[in-house]
Design a protein that fits this description.
Layout (H helix, E strand, L loop, with lengths): L1 E8 L16 E4 L4 H8 L3 E9 L1 H6 L1 H14 L4 E4 L6 H13 L4 E5 L13 E4 L7 H16 L7 H4 L16 H13 L26 E6 L3 E3 L15 E4 L11 E3 L7 H5 L7 H9 L5 E8 L7 H17 L4 E5 L2
Parallel strand pairs: 1-3, 1-4, 4-5, 5-6, 7-11, 7-12
Antiparallel strand pairs: 2-3, 8-10, 9-11
Length: 338
């Protein structure tokens, strides 16, 4: 029998509602709450313990909470970890994803495909659910089937075959027909509206914001070209950036050669370092400001490195920068890339 640990938030663990959301990580013997229904559907797997944590506690003390949760999990000597289902709850879904991604044993989480926590699961499996607890009856059997397959060491098929959300992995296999034959077949099927392409990019659709009048707007400069002060004092990585930086312009009219540089590892930065305004067009925007074609330039620019950065991390950077800009009264952004 494979030993498993189940992660739940305070509500589903029966510790309370929002009044218990500050509950620190806690161990509970055996299966509780939805874990009982999950345990009944599992094959060859026993839920030996439940680890629960309040949504607020995890959100406000993430690293501390995660470390305590992993200690509790490790103490059980599990061979499998399951988390959720979190449905559409963002805080809960994020905690589930972080736990299964960090546990060091095979695992899966369950949540709605549009749950904002989904991206934190990394290579861990995510079982799709409905958006609310009304989908519990359907979610538990799906979780049980996949968890039982992991416990049995079965090699998983595609997301469609085994009921988990795509993770962006690609696998080579020997096809019976040539690429040209498959391409024509897919094209005809797509024109007929009966299939999708072999590669699902899964890009978000973002509604455009309301238009602004630049002559009256506050504009900020944002770049993913890795532009930083000479010497990279804050150690922005050249690949897979973990965050973004904000630098005051102090009334400068141009980014002077020798004072700024690019640390981007994905392109030849020679021309950018010769004239950093090619990375962040401060000189041009100052001219537009002086001509009245831009209302006012925000006196700081924002930078990160867009090289090998996961989509989930890039999305977080954008949300954080946008929140900071809105708080400072910025109405428009000029985003320079590579």
């Amino acid at each position: 029998m494979v030993r498993a640990v189940h992660y739940l938030n305070q509500f589903f663990a029966g510790l309370g509602g929002e009044e218990a959301a500050s509950t620190p990580p806690t161990r509970i013997e055996g299966a509780v709450g939805p874990g009982r229904g999950l345990a009944a559907a599992l094959e060859g797997v026993e839920i030996v313990a439940t680890v629960a944590c309040g949504d607020d506690f995890f959100a406000e003390h993430e690293e501390e909470a995660l470390a305590e949760i992993l200690q509790l999990v490790e103490a059980e000597g599990p061979e499998l970890i399951v988390a959720g289902p979190a449905f559409g709850s963002g805080r809960y879904g994020y905690a589930c994803a972080r736990v299964v991604a960090s546990a060091g044993v095979p695992g899966l989480a369950a949540m709605h495909e549009e749950n904002p926590g989904r991206g934190a699961a990394g290579a861990a499996l995510v079982v799709p659910t409905g958006s609310s607890v009304a989908g519990m009856r359907d979610a538990l059997p799906r979780m049980a089937r996949l968890a039982s397959a992991l416990a049995a060491g079965r090699e998983l098929g595609s997301p469609d075959e085994d009921g988990y959300l795509p993770r962006g992995f690609r696998r080579n296999h020997l096809a019976e027909r040539t690429g040209a034959e498959r391409a024509i077949e897919l094209l005809l099927a797509k024109l007929a509206g009966t299939t999708r392409t072999e590669v699902d990019a899964g890009f978000d659709r973002v509604e455009p914001p309301a238009p602004v009048t630049l002559a009256a707007a506050t504009l900020a400069l944002v770049t993913e070209a890795g532009c930083v002060p000479q010497g990279n004092p804050d150690r922005l990585p050249s690949i897979r950036a973990a965050g973004w930086l904000r630098y005051e312009l102090g009334g400068e009219t141009s980014l002077a050669t020798g004072r700024y540089e690019s640390v981007h590892g994905g392109f030849d930065v020679t021309l950018g370092n010769e004239d950093p305004n090619r990375l962040v067009p401060l000189d041009t925007v100052r001219e537009l400001e002086g001509e009245g074609r831009v209302g006012r330039l925000h006196e700081a620019f924002y930078t990160t490195t867009g090289n090998g950065t996961p989509v989930a991390a890039s999305t977080r950077f954008g949300q954080e920068i946008a929140e900071d800009l809105r708080a400072r009264g910025v109405e428009a952004v000029l985003l320079s890339g590579t």
